[in-house]
Amino acid sequence: MPTMEVDGKKVSWEGRKMILQACLDNGVELPHYCYHQGLSIVASCRICLVEVENPDPKDPGKLVKIPKLMPACQTPAVDGMKVHSLSPKAAANQKAVLEFLLLNHPLDCPVCDQAGECYLQDYSFRYGRAQSRFEEDKAKKPKKDIGKHVLLYSDRCIMCTRCVRFTREISGTGELGVFGRGHKEEIDVFPGQSLDNPLSGNVIDICPVGALLDKDFLFTQRVWFLKKTPSISPFSSGGENIFIEHNQGRVYRIKPRFHKDINQWWISDDIRYGWNFIHNNRQKRISVRGSADCASWEYSLGRLEQMFRKAAAEKGAGSTVLLLSPFDSTEEMFLAAKWIRGIDSQARLILNPPKIEGRDQVFRNPATGAVTYIIRAEKAPNRRGAEKIIAHFGEPPAGRTDSLDELADRAKNGNISAALVLVDPIAHNDSRLGEVFADLENLVTLSTRPDGLVGRAALALPVCTWAEKSGVFENCEGRIQAFERAVAPLEETRSAGEVFWDLLSQAGTYNAAAVRRLMVQAGLAEYADVSIPQREKEVELMQFVEL
Question: Do 114 and 52 belong together in one domain?
Fold first, then answer.
């Protein structure tokens, strides 16, 4: 494996890499603005310039110093080379670049949403000058509304062109461009266009300063109060890796989490902005038909058990139904199926068909033709997991519409005595299920929302969203991925897994990892080695606030 020395530290890499990327992979920091691993290299910001000594081709034991500073982002790493980023020459360049970038940059850090995660702040502290020599008035540029989700603060822009390259190379839509020359150069949308492609929110993530900001997150929370919890998107069958950023029990935003084989550095706007149902229009209390009083969980679970045992005894085996949701974790569906089969050995297990919108939307780099991102048409995170549970308990995975058609026929003929429905959070087929269960007396729902099918239920139990529980999803490619709880459950809500854990009289409290061990013992060996994503270090800053 080739090795080079960077400021006295050994850095190794595989394949062909630039100096900057090799350093970043090894945890060695080199300042950079325009460079992003997912975008083309332009070497325009010039802050990553370093001194380089290369091995002499004629005498490998001798190093030859390149007289000029070299851009680390664009210079290939060579075995045996030495790199100096802290030398007087390199340090002078860093100070000069930062001084230049800050000439017209407004001093509005106290009101800027990027404060706390801004490259200008960090690098000014580490590499910049303590004082500015600029005495003229700063140039002032207007704030621009350039798209559905994005605001552009032109006076903060440092012209790294990351956003321009993203719209050209990743989304392939090309709405953004560089207009003007010299000190009048600026980023803007082309006339008559707006930044409204399905991946537009990613330009906010890759902007190293506060030039591109999120309208939804604007002025809502300081980033140093936010905690990051690694999770999996519940809005798509692709299994995109995300961070849920939250504080004091409330989610404020969702950001992409790098995964080489799934979503790389990107997520769609549907994933980024689809989480508002966590805090809005939630079912917060247990609802019992015919009673205005709030029931306790102990009473409700007892009534649920009694209701299904009585229904199965009266109409015989096979008269009860469990409608599984592809939005629930595999652990929850396993416990639900195990519980109902313990009451009715022939209970029907049916999958609520996931929502499908057209076809997969494939984004490609116009220059190379390489696939850069896929927005899946199927809007459910765990259909594969649901089908696997149904097959495990003795029933083949039914068709997406045939199951509900069969269920409707059985309900019409009076062959259903009781139904337990795990309601989808988006509930795209509420009206269809309402028709199927219109005359069913023993209907129980586990739902996050109080509307739709829940209003018809004899017993409606409030359950958690994916952000309030842990478990695993299996994406459309069969990749099993775990997610962790980000925020505490809302008021009286419980996870569906906890409900069935208690109904099965399992010892201790519900734990997704413990359920996976039960699944492995039951023959689902693929859940034995599910890796749990590592939480980012949660920095507690209250000690500074108290000062």
Answer: no
Structure tokens at 401: 């519409």
For every residue of 479-542, DSSP letters joined together read -EEEE---SPPPTT-B-HHHHHHHHTT-SSS--HHHHHHHHHHTT-GGGTTPPPPPPPP----H
pLDDT at 241: 95
Alpha-carbon dihedral of residues 305, 380, 262, 216, nearest 10 degrees? -110
Is the separation of the CB atoms in 166 and 39 below 8 Å?
Answer: yes
Instruction: Give the distance, in angstroms, between the CA of residue 125 and the centroid of all CA atoms in the same chain.
Output: 31
CATH of the domain at 45: 3.10.20.740
pLDDT value for 304: 93
The 3-state secondary structure of 351-409, one letter per residue: ECCCCECCCCEEEECCCCCCEEEEECCECCCCHHHHHHHHHHCCCCCCCCCHHHHHHHH
pLDDT digits (tens, 9 = 90+) for 497-525: 999 999 999 888 899 999 999 999 999 99
Integer Cα distance of 78 and 92 in angstroms: 25
| pTM (predicted TM-score) | 0.90
Q: What are the tens digits of pLDDT across the range 141-169?
A: 888 999 999 999 998 999 999 999 999 99
Q: Do 51 and 191 reside in the same domain of the chain? A: no
Looking at the 3D structure of the chain, how many domains does it have? Answer: 3
- The pLDDT assigned to 537 comes to 45
- Full domain range(s) for residue 130: 109-278
Note whether 90 and 118 are same-domain residues: no
